[in-house]
Amino acid sequence: MKIVVSNPKTGKTYQKEVDDKKARAIHNKRIGQEISGSLLDIDGYQLEITGGSDKQGFPMRRGLKTAERKKLLLKGGTGYRPKERGIKKRKTVRGEIVEEDIEQLNLKVTKKGKKDLEVIFGIKQEEETEKDKEEQKETEKEETGEKTRKEKEDKKEKKQEKEETKEDKPEKTEQTEETEKDKEEQKEDKKEE
After folding, report:
1. pLDDT digits over 94-150, tens only?
2. Nearest C-alpha neighbor of 1 from the set 102, 76, 110, 129
């Protein structure tokens, strides 16, 4: 059986072949159930079953409470995507229970373990990941330092702009007050006429 583990936080997926002996540990589990990663040599992780397909390629469909294949009249969802709205079609899908006929099982990480998935799946070595983590921490510190500097500079600029706009606003003088009174009197005269 092939397992495909996706990590929603990073958006990456990892594939691994699992022996039939270890695959038997997850038989009779359903889509949506959580399993311990130690059953599949992914220690420390909690995984949720999200789907899969059998040896002939028929997908597992949630809600079909069997391990067998069934022909269902579908209007959408897993196993059928209609080209037009409102079209139904009879399609063969597999039930939501994991059995020995399942060729590929899709899993999602719900709880992270101590080791990175890249190390567990053999993509990176432990030393590389530790170096990567240290580099990420350093860059984050530098970025946060730069952000705080920029924020302080922005605040100072805004204060200066506010002060400049206050100085630029003309204060009401006696002339402007007189012209405003004249305009009001002219409006009242027009209304009377």
Report:
1. 999 999 999 999 999 999 888 888 888 877 766 556 666 677 777 676 666 666 677
2. 102
Please report the beta strands in 118-162, taking only residues with DSSP state E, as ranges in sequence order.
none
pTM across the whole model: 0.61
Residues 6+ apart with CB under 8 A from 73: 88, 89, 90
Measured between alpha carbons, how far is 92 from 60 in angstroms, rounded to an integer? 10
Per the structure, how many domains does the chain have? 2
Q: In this structure, are 6 and 58 located in the same domain?
A: yes
Structural domain including 141 reads: 123-153
Residues 127 and 103 in one domain: no
44-73: average pLDDT:
93
Strands 34-36 and 2-7: unpaired
Q: How far apart are CA 31 and CA 48, in angstroms?
A: 8
Q: What are the angstrom distances between the C-alpha of 117 and each of 111, 136, 173, 183?
A: 12, 17, 73, 77
Q: Say yes or no: 37 and 62 in one domain.
A: yes
CA distance 71 to 68: 10
